[in-house]
Amino acid sequence: QVQLVESGGGLVQSGGSLRLSCAASGDIFSILAMAWYRQAPGKERELVAGVITGGNPHYADFTKGRFTISRDNAKNTAYLQMNSLKLEDTAVYYCKAHIRGTRGRADYWGQGTQVTVSS
User: How far, CA to CA in Å, does 32 sit from each of 29, 42, 109, 110, 117?
Assistant: First the structure.
């Protein structure tokens, strides 16, 4: 079994910054990819940023250079640095990881962390 635990969400004023973390633990042989998604009220979940191990990160257009995804492979942790936050960035942010364990490969999701941007 694999667990993803997100942290770092909270309330921030427009223009501010937050750094989200996602720590993976459990039956992990290798992490093949990690990504951040978000879901705002009444909207579908959407990709924010992702990175395949050994590859370049990719971002949704709405991040427009404001967000940076990074990973610490030694800690099985991914980060999402969010700068210049806007009201429309308010959402629950979820971490997703594609992991190879002893029983094969699978996708895992974290429980989500709330990000609220106020004016």
Answer: 10, 31, 14, 16, 31
